[in-house]
Amino acid sequence: MFVYNVKVNGSKVYKIFFSCMIIFLIIVVGIIMFRIFTGANSSQENYSCIPPNKVSKLTTKNYTSVLKTVHENIDDYIGTKINFTGYIYRVLDLKDNQFILSRDMIISSDRQYVIVGFLCEYDKAKDFEDNTWVEITGEITKGNYHGDMPIIKVTEIKNTDKPNDEFVYPPDESYIPTSGVL
């Protein structure tokens, strides 16, 4: 009868265990990185707030999401027709046929807001006073105002009443206010 005496070398067992753990961690980190990069690319490509080639109605709920998406992907939305309500807002360096169709976006719980909106062009823009609420239908084009910017070529405009839900909210949880008052 033979009795085997197995002697375990603690140094070798530790080295093998440590090596396996390092390999396992490298595989896990590789899988996570792969999912992050492929998930970010696919979500960005498939995300669309408004379908091309038909008139899309912007609402209080989707206003800032559409605004953000169109500004980030101007070329994808050229020719898209949209309809939305806002108030006329002008800044000093706009042309006579330009105005911003604006909404107030709440940025904090104490009702601080910033003005957001689309730059619009309309031949009879001077017929509308600042702070007048209007509903427009227009087509998205690419223009230049301190860099590339979507510009709405207004095809139809009419006066309207101030809506009950005049405020809009940030497009998602990642919004960070850049206002100096916060």
Question: What features would you highlight for this structure?
Answer:
182 residues; alpha/beta; OB fold (Dihydrolipoamide Acetyltransferase, E2P); 2 domains; 3 helices; elongated; disordered C terminus
Can you describe what's shown?
This protein has 182 residues and is of the alpha/beta class. The chain has 2 domains: 39 residues; 113 residues, Nucleic acid-binding proteins (OB fold (Dihydrolipoamide Acetyltransferase, E2P), Beta Barrel). Helices cover 28% and strands 30% of the residues. The protein has 3 helices and 7 strands; from the N terminus they run H-E-H-H-E-E-E-E-E-E. Strands 2-3-4-6-5 form a 5-stranded mixed barrel. The C terminus is likely disordered.
| Count of β-strands | 7
Overall average pLDDT = 81
Order of helices and strands: HEHHEEEEEE
CATH domain class of the largest domain? Mainly Beta
Give the DSSP E fraction (strand runs of 2 or more residues): 25-35%
The N- to C-terminal Cα distance equals: 84 Å
Describe the oligomeric state of these chains in a short phrase.
single chain
What can be said about the biggest beta sheet?
A: 5 strands, mixed, barrel
- Main sheet: strand order: 2-3-4-6-5
Ranges where pLDDT stays below 50 over 5 or more residues in a row are 42-47, 178-182
Task: Please compute the radius of gyration using only Cα atoms.
Answer: 28 Å
* CATH architecture heading of the largest domain: Beta Barrel
Approximate shape:
elongated
Q: Write down the domain tally.
A: 2
CATH superfamily of the largest domain: Nucleic acid-binding proteins
Class from secondary-structure proportions: alpha/beta
Kindly state the percentage of residues in helix.
25-40%
